[in-house]
Amino acid sequence: MHLRKKRQAIIMKLLLKPIQWVYILYASIIFVGVMLLILPFIFLASFLGRIRGGNVIYYFLWFWSRTWFPAVGIFVKRIYKYDRKDKTPFIYVVNHSTYLDAALAVGVMRLPFRPLGKIEMQKIPLFGFIYKHAVVPVDRSDAKARSRSVRELIATIREGVSILIFPEGTTNDTDKPLTSFHNGAFRIAIETQTALQPVLYLDCKDRLPRSKVQHLNPGRCRIVYLPPVRVAGMTMDDLPALKQQVFEIMEKELLSYR
After folding, report:
1. How far is CA 42 from CA 45, 47, 62, 132, in A?
2. Quick one: pLDDT at residue 11?
3. Long-range contacts of range 19-26, CB-CB < 8 Å, 24 or more positions apart?
4. Among 107, 138, 166, 235, whose CB has the most other CB atoms within 10 angstroms?
5. CA end-to-end span of the chain, whole Å?
6. Which residues lie below 8 Å from residue 87, measured CB to CB, with a gap of 6+?
7. Closest CA to 239 of 187, 184, 197
8. What is the pLDDT of residue 16?
9. Long-range residue pairs from 245-252, CB within 8 A, at least 24 positions apart, any chain
10. Taking the CB of residue 159, how many other CB atoms lie within 10 A of it?
11. pTM, entire model
12. In a structure prediction context, what are the per-residue pLDDT tens digits for the chain, which is 258 residues long?
């Protein structure tokens, strides 16, 4: 009986594989097609300056994300656990499990905002041009480059624009809810006295396991917006405790959804 079930599973997998590749081709065409549609407008907006032009660019990226996700059968559900009337800039700290997180962010985070992103992504044809004008890039291998990125993030917040940081630094490929956090988001929060808002992306890893395009699949993506963590009056001496506090808040909430 066990051998028969195993054989049936193999046959089913072989039958579904062509359907999966058709889905991947369709999703890729929509992804690139919408990107090409908005590219001329992003090019024009890039002449408006870092802040104003960047804010305009994000409305087109919002359109791109809001078009692509439902078109490929990925349905987004937002769960709010805080008072949405607060319109002040935040430092969004988000768990990071797959490359899908970045595409989702531009469609679900309150505008305007800027994420911190890997500088290597700028090398991708066409997408790299959009990426260059949409994120604050960071070269983690260069201490001076990391310092410049932090200064740009601080300047962005002081212009009234929120920022988004994945505090784990890279995708979490472990079985743990979170991996250890870097200091950057918490250092910036204390220096600028800007509240942190933890946000959870619950299902991105299910939709795009192991960040491999060939494993993309339709389904739900839940976003949980947790209450902001205020930092008023904190100093750099409070950084370790603040980082641990946010880690525990996010870890506890992630475990509650498992």
Report:
1. 5, 9, 12, 11
2. 58
3. 20/214, 20/217, 21/214, 23/72, 23/216, 23/217, 23/218, 24/213, 24/214, 24/216, 26/72
4. 166
5. 32
6. 110
7. 187
8. 67
9. 246/93, 246/167, 246/181, 246/186, 246/196, 246/198, 247/178, 247/180, 247/181, 249/198, 250/93, 250/95, 250/177, 250/178, 250/198, 250/200, 250/226, 251/177, 251/178
10. 14
11. 0.89
12. 566 666 655 655 666 678 888 999 999 999 999 999 999 999 999 999 889 999 999 999 999 999 999 999 999 999 999 877 777 899 999 999 898 998 999 999 998 999 988 887 777 777 788 888 888 877 777 777 778 888 889 999 999 999 999 999 888 888 899 999 999 999 999 999 999 999 999 999 999 987 678 889 999 999 999 999 999 999 999 999 999 999 999 999 999 987
Per-residue pLDDT at 132: 83
- Strand 196-201 relative to strand 219-225: parallel, antiparallel, unpaired? antiparallel
> Identity (one letter) of the amino acid at 116?
L
C-alpha span between 161 and 177 (Å, rounded): 29
Amino acid at 76: V
Q: Provide the token pair at 78.
A: 């937002």
- The encoded tokens of residue 154 equal 């601080």
At 83 the pLDDT is 74
